[in-house]
Design brief:
The protein has 146 residues and is of the alpha+beta class. 25% of the residues lie in helices and 34% in strands. The chain has one domain: Nuclear Transport Factor 2, Chain: A (Roll). The strands form 2 sheets. A 4-stranded antiparallel beta sheet has the order 3-4-5-6. Strands 1-2 form a two-stranded antiparallel ribbon.
Length: 146
């Protein structure tokens, strides 16, 4: 169906048995896809090596300035969203880079670089405003479900 969106992760076993799969709204589907773009490294998808964004390239980078990293990631995400998420118009990507202390089972606490991503745009189908926010921790890369 044209307006039916499926919730991730896909249950391939259920699909093979012709069972119904969980569905979601247009907004949830777009949010899932944006998260997938954010957490996919270039080259990870064999059929399209340009799918994803450059966050992985800065996973353990402690030398490049936060301003340069921020602009490079913002530009990479903007290009990927325009190319791969056509259900959004007038996309704007904003990033904040900071540090956050996290509990670690071995060493007590660790300070990790936190990248907060806010994506705004307009739903192409309804012309409603869309806002998505995600947080990524680098060194090693991990994310926080919001």
């Amino acid at each position: 169906m044209k307006n039916q969106f499926y919730k991730l992760p896909l249950s391939l076993a259920g699909i093979m048995q012709k069972k119904d799969h969980r569905t979601c709204t247009l907004e949830q589907s777009i949010a899932q896809h944006l998260h997938l773009i954010i957490t996919t490294a270039f080259g990870e998808l064999p059929v399209d090596e340009n799918y994803g964004c450059c966050i992985w390239e800065f996973d353990f980078d402690n030398i490049t300035s936060s301003h340069k990293i921020k602009e490079y990631i913002r530009e990479s995400l903007s290009e990927a969203i325009v190319r791969y998420e056509r259900r959004l118009d007038n996309v704007r990507v904003e990033l904040e880079i900071g540090q956050e202390e996290q509990a670690s089972p071995k060493s007590g606490f660790r300070v990790k670089k936190k990248i907060t991503i806010t994506i705004t745009g307009w739903l192409h189908a309804t012309n409603e405003k869309f806002i998505y926010e995600d947080s990524i921790f680098t060194g090693p890369l991990s994310y926080q479900l919001i």
